[in-house]
Amino acid sequence: MLPGVGATVSVLILFPILLTFDPINIIVCFVSLYSMTQYVGSVPALLLGVPGEASSLPAVIEGQKLKQQNKISDAIAYTAIGSLLGSVIVVTLTLASGPLIEEIAKIYRTPVQTVLIFLVLTMMFFYKENKKIINLALMLLGYLLGMVGIHGDLNREFLTFGNVNLYGGLPMFPVILSLFVFPLFLKTIKTPVRDITPFQIKISYFVTFFQHSLSSLRGTLLGFIGGFCPGMTHAFSSQLAYVTEKAVSKDSLKSVVSSETANNAGAFSAILPLIVLGIPISSSEALLLAILETKSFAFSLNEFLPILQKSALALLIVNIVGIVIAWPLAKYLCKIFLVDQKKLYAFLFLLLVILNYYIGTLYYSQYYYMMVLLCLLPLGYMLRKVNTMPLIFCFIIANYSIELLWISYQLYIM
Q1: With the C-alpha atoms ordered 286, 288, 293, 297, is the resulting torsion angle positive or negative?
Q2: What does DSSP assign to residue 180?
Q3: Inter-residue contact 26 to 303 (CB < 8 Å)
Q4: 217 FRET partner, CA 20 to 30 A, in 208, 230, 343, 400?
């Protein structure tokens, strides 16, 4: 809900808890968390004009118009109901087509995997929030940091300087905290917002919602398709649905309903490449993959249907909770924005620093974890004006993508 505190930061906060779960439950927890962030993002966007998520920008744009038209109550209700409808449709259709997806995935081989991962990297280069040259520099820096250590499969040692701590590479948590979370928090700190737009709660909205059902269905379809876009996922889904609906209906309320429905549909489709193929297409998914690797877990077709079924059940529960939070409890949820934002973000960052130390103790490397954090924080401060997602994504998948390329080279070129 807070700007800058999306799925990636939320996973970091839950990192110690996730380490105690088995791999399947880690995935289910991530899917639930990913979906919930989309539900609550529209609440501050509509009531306060503050985007809780990048995908909620259309709600910010249209929120002022809806206030003038006295339709904020309608928007809050219809976006919550639309999000529920979109999620249920997408999950149901995916479950029904599970065996078909499984058959299609059987043609999947290392060359296809290599092509897909480098397609994702290409999309990172065109990541719209930064200039292309900046994206390239961030990606190279991410690879540079990710390749530190000794790698037996490739028979190489890179930038270890004889330091035993560096043999295993740079730890993921302090790198993400210093080079992603820290600059993101610096960039997104806002002054407190004092004006929460009042709205009404009526059960009749479930009936009148059907006047906007076509907009919601269009958002579901476009959101599901847009979710596959590497590096942008649900944010692209939202924008795609918003632009399309504005062209079709030219109505602010329908446009918001469509874009917010697309958020949740895109949130689910975005994780399918990871579940089916083991390919992450966002920084939060790359982080999830790295956590699963600590459990020696690898995605396979044997695990696909069980993961899908458990995720579907979790999403059903999450959507019921989500519609309650994003509608009846919305005005209470927004009161968090009345707190001094600088103090709030400072508290969150301090909590993450403590977690960094704690996770380090789990590997008997607490001082090493803190040293990496302190060494990289100045670099994070220098990067506060850019979105460092390409850097973090490449840092996490550096070894995975290089080893994949090396295997393809050995199998098909040598």
Answers
A1: negative
A2: I
A3: no
A4: 230
